[in-house]
Amino acid sequence: MGSAESGKVNGHHHHLPLARDEIDDVRTIREEEIMTFPLTIFLINSFVSHRVFTRRWAMLLMFILLSGSNGMQWTQYTIIVDHVVAFYTDVTTSHVDWTSMIYMLTYILFFVPASWFLDRFGLRWSLLLGAGGNCIGAWIKIMSTSPDAFWITFIGQTIVGGSQMFTLGIPPKLAAVWFGSDEVSTACAAGVFGNQLGIAVGFLLPTLLVYGGTVAEVATQLNHLFLVSAVLNSLIFVLIICFFADKPPVPPSAAQAAASEELQQSHGATLKGLMTDRNFLLLFITYGLNTGVFYAVSTLLAQITKPFFPDATSETRDQRSKVISITRSQIGTLGLLIVVAGMGGSVVGGFVLDRFKKFKLTTLGVYLFSCFGMTCLTFTLSFKELWIVYANGILMGFFMTGYLPIGFEFAAEITFPAAEGTVGGLLNAAAQVFGIALTSGAGELANSVSVFACNLTLSIVLLVGTILTVLIREDLKRQHAHRQHANVPSIIITEFSAIGHCLDQLDLRSGELLSNIRISLIFSLDF
After folding, report:
1. Are 458 and 297 a contacting pair, CB within 8 Å?
2. Which of 4, 343, 442, 512 sits at 20 to 30 Å (Cα–Cα) from 15?
3. For residue 69, which of 220, 205, 189 has the smallest C-alpha distance?
4. Preceding omega of 249 cis (within 30 degrees of 0)
């Protein structure tokens, strides 16, 4: 008998378990020695050591561009709602609001088959469909620059909105498939950053290109807006076709390697398991509430700020000097500040999660400050000070939109090893359901009661979400898998003759030199 740290087999000393940084010291193990090991289970699996590849950053960049090109088109009508209503025949603000809400509706209707498609066919095919839909929808809009063609522009917007189902749930999946355990949260945040970047551009670009005039002038301005989008989406589509890879040759982390070896459930069984998990259900609701408020604020931004800053042109000459007005470009700037601050929040949130692994605490803190930011905006709009509105927009945006990747990553932790695409799809479905409900309800409150009542209601919704977040139990299953599989004993087989038949699937002949293949063994050694 010997210690648990070392033993002697056929006169040779072996040291088990082996640390990963000790693999160079492992000696050759031959057939007669292998056969003398009292193993509980001999061979569990064979695999090349997990590693990350430099091209993961190229995959992430291509996705950021694709997601941004989709987000850019989301609010391109609502931010210039007055010009759209004036240009198109028999179109109301409600019709224009639906150019935003169609994104949410199509996602609700089709996210289940889209998440199944992602799990079944992988990242590349999902992104090809998303990029193709973006491109087709953007070119259709080119044909809608006449006053009687709103139905054409709506068809194009519906196709673009429908394409979102193939991209919106991608960030946690892309991060898990391509990035290591110490990068996964940051990568997910960067993926969400792309959509936010597109939304920011969508707030600003339409206000710069479409500024009013005669019918012919507005038609030309809209044509320029649509053409920029169509060309950009075409270029991104080509990039995805030519360069995007589905996954790396080997997993990037121990947890991902373990997840890929799990017995795969049917998609229906996965959905059922998720929707009967108490912690995930709470996160499902809280994520939907927070993101739904963000969607409502983004869609109704012009309607909830304009009443506090009357248009000076409607006043008498003597009154004009006393009236503060807010222009379309300033509303666009406010939207830009909200989203750009959110991009910063996403990056900071991802870094904090990777560095400290405090998922619930980070989620709760961000949620609380989102509520605080919305409340501040609600009670300070009446001050009619543009710089205060901008400051509150930055505060609210940093936390409210910064919450999006944090929610994704918290969900990935408590539902591991469920498919990230399915988990992300469900969270986004909650966001779309609450987004439609809150946008419709808040819009009705703003029109029939008051803008203050609208904003106060959204603040209360965030308070409810904060309280529900407290009830979520922090069960970090993915972190546990990282630790567990990082400590699995490993040995390097540098020469073998007796176990070649165990490695047939690797196309390796008995006796070949193997310096980089690691064989996972579970030993019950009586040393």
Report:
1. yes
2. 512
3. 205
4. no
> Torsions phi, psi of 88, nearest 5?
-85, 140
| Ranges in the chain, pLDDT < 70 | 1-50, 254-267, 310-328, 482, 484-527
Q: Tokens for 307?
A: 């009443």
Predicted local distance difference test score (pLDDT) of residue 56: 92
Closest CA to 282 of 474, 476, 480, 478: 474
CA separation for the pair 173, 119 (Å, rounded):
9
DSSP 4-60: SSEEEETTEEEE-SPPGGGGGGPPP--HHHHHH---SEEEEEEEEPP---TTHHHHH
Q: What is the pLDDT of residue 266?
A: 66
Q: Give DSSP secondary structure letters for 117-142.
A: HHHHHHHHHHHHHHHHHHHHHHHHHG
Helices 93-141 and 420-448: angle between axes, nearest 10 degrees = 140
Q: Can you give the pLDDT at residue 149? A: 94
Q: What is the pLDDT of residues 296-334, one digit of tens each?
A: 998 888 788 877 776 544 444 444 334 455 666 788 788
115 token code pair: 């998440």
Burial grade of 313 (CB within 10 A; 0-12, 13-18, 19 or more):
exposed
Q: How many Å apart are CA 124 and CA 126, to the nearest integer?
A: 5
**Do the beta carbons of residue 434 and residue 457 sit within 8 Å?**
no
This model's pTM is above 0.90: no
Using DSSP's 3-state secondary structure scheme, residue 522 falls into strand
Report the C-alpha gap between 439 and 462 in whole angstroms.
14
Whether the bond between 17 and the residue before it is cis, its omega within 30 degrees of 0, is yes
User: How do residues 152-210 score in pLDDT, each as one tens digit?
Assistant: 999 999 999 999 999 988 988 898 889 887 888 888 888 888 888 898 888 889 988 99
